[in-house]
């Protein structure tokens, strides 16, 4: 589950680098880069692009000057043909990574017709994709996405964290959205190939991670309301930094009791793209008032906690940790699931149940979980004009303990007794 909404508070100076916005008025390399990376977009006028960091631009220009004519079909070919380039770390300032898109070398793509099965996909250079204006994903929102990370160990090997869980969640979401989906094995192998193809973009140990974004979309043209006739599965990656490298900044939430993220029988329990557009209005209003994000209540009783815009929530009281039960309106976060298991292994009692909003008033700690941030402490929650604070100096004791155990496991710093990581060499 993605916690992008939380991140502005945790690390306010992100340098968001979107490929469609690249522009540098001061560097002649910009024209070369744009013509290679986006050959159909070089006619755009300069104002449509943000100024590109010179160091990133230089790295990208060098990268595309060595264009490989044909994509690699599998990891074995990649290992033979790309080892000299992939073995070297990208020449970027790893200490200055934020959570923004930094274009890497390759993306993975495979297609499937409605009612069919996905066949073997392939790697291709990262860049724009072409869609019919009547594509199902554009007209009717028939799309899902996932998010996971890869970490580099001290020995140079790379760890993936629970990729099969993302595969299973995508398949569950696809069933709800009337879409075919890759098998678990296809998903995991595609992730492996994509990460290996972009190995030089996995940050050095302790400097961050490689964020992996799998997409499943109705790419076929359809005018009437119906499932699309064709589907595309795509994976791209981007290196991202550590969120707490400059100190932890607890987030401040406001409880929303009029607008709702999801309804019973809807799609709140799957990671469909429409779930995220639906929270933007309330989130934008909250940020305009100085809050970090919005905490939603159930739409029936308007009294039970559900989740924040893009992450799950936990309430701590003594040795008991409570979190809203998964009941169709809450996304089953993989970080949420992992934190629950870690907490129980550490001796905490974890309850998955209906959590009344009033319990926030008496809580010892509150924290959120998501793929991007892992664990984010909540500094305060405002409900109907009343503000409750839980500390402003960083993690509470429980959140700190769980964050430390999970992140050390993800980075390979402790033994993986859970059997959650997949190691790539």
UniProtKB/TrEMBL annotation:
Q: State its Enzyme Commission number(s).
A: 2.6.1.42
PROSITE patterns noted in UniProt = AA_TRANSFER_CLASS_4
Q: Name one GO cellular component term.
A: chloroplast
Q: Which domain of life is it from?
A: Eukaryota
Which of the seven top EC classes does this enzyme belong to? transferase
Annotated SUPFAM superfamilies: D-aminoacid aminotransferase-like PLP-dependent enzymes (SSF56752)
> Which positions bear N6-(pyridoxal phosphate)lysine?
271
Cofactor section:
pyridoxal 5'-phosphate
Under Pfam families, the record lists: Aminotran_4 (PF01063)
Q: Which InterPro entries match?
A: Aminotrans_IV, Aminotrans_IV_CS, Aminotransferase-like, B_amino_transII, BCAT-like_C, BCAT-like_N, BCAT_family
Q: What are this entry's molecular-function GO terms?
A: L-isoleucine-2-oxoglutarate transaminase activity; L-leucine-2-oxoglutarate transaminase activity; L-valine-2-oxoglutarate transaminase activity
Q: Which reaction does it catalyse?
A: L-valine + 2-oxoglutarate = 3-methyl-2-oxobutanoate + L-glutamate; L-leucine + 2-oxoglutarate = 4-methyl-2-oxopentanoate + L-glutamate; L-isoleucine + 2-oxoglutarate = (S)-3-methyl-2-oxopentanoate + L-glutamate
CDD domains per record: BCAT_beta_family
GO biological process, any = branched-chain amino acid biosynthetic process
Tell me if Aminoacyl-tRNA synthetase is a UniProt keyword of this record: no
Q: Which family does it belong to?
A: Belongs to the class-IV pyridoxal-phosphate-dependent aminotransferase family.
What is the designated name of this protein? Branched-chain-amino-acid aminotransferase
Source taxonomy lineage?
Eukaryota, Viridiplantae, Streptophyta, Embryophyta, Tracheophyta
């Amino acid at each position: 589950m993605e916690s992008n909404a939380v991140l502005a508070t945790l690390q306010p100076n992100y340098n968001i680098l979107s490929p469609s916005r690249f522009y540098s008025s001061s560097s002649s390399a910009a024209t070369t880069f744009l013509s290679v990376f986006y050959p159909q977009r070089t006619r755009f006028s300069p104002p449509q692009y943000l100024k590109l960091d010179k160091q990133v631009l230089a790295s990208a220009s060098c990268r595309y000057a060595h264009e490989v004519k044909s994509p690699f079909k599998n990891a074995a070919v990649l290992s033979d043909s790309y080892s000299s380039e992939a073995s070297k770390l990208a020449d970027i300032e790893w200490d200055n990574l934020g959570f923004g898109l930094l274009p890497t070398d390759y993306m993975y793509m495979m297609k499937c017709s409605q009612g069919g099965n996905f066949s073997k996909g392939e790697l291709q250079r990262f860049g724009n994709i072409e869609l019919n204006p009547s594509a199902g994903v554009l007209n009717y929102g028939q799309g899902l996405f996932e998010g996971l990370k890869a970490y580099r160990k001290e020995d140079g090997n790379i760890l993936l964290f629970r990729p099969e869980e993302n595969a299973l969640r995508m398949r569950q979401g696809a069933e709800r959205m009337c879409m075919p989906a890759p098998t678990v094995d296809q998903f995991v192998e595609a992730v492996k190939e994509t990460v290996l193809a972009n190995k030089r973009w996995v940050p050095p140990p302790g400097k961050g991670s490689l964020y992996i974004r799998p997409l499943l979309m109705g790419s076929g043209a359809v005018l009437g309301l119906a499932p699309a006739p064709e589907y595309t599965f795509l994976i791209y990656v981007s290196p991202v930094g550590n969120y707490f490298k400059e100190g932890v900044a607890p987030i401040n939430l406001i409880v929303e009791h009029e607008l709702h993220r999801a309804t019973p029988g809807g799609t709140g329990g799957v990671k469909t793209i429409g779930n995220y557009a639906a929270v933007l209005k309330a989130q934008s209003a909250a940020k305009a008032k100085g809050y970090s994000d919005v905490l939603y209540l159930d739409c029936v009783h308007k009294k039970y906690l559900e989740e924040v815009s893009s992450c799950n929530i936990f309430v701590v009281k003594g040795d008991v940790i409570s979190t809203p039960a998964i009941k169709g309106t809450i996304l089953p976060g993989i970080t949420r699931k992992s934190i629950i298991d870690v907490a129980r292994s550490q001796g905490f009692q974890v309850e998955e149940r209906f959590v009344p909003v009033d319990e926030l008033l008496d809580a010892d700690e509150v924290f959120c979980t998501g793929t991007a941030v892992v664990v984010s402490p909540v500094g305060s929650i405002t409900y109907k004009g009343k503000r409750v604070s839980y500390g402003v100096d960083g993690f509470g004791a429980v959140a700190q303990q769980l964050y430390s155990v999970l992140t050390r496991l993800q980075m390979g710093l402790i033994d993986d007794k859970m059997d959650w990581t997949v190691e790539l060499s």
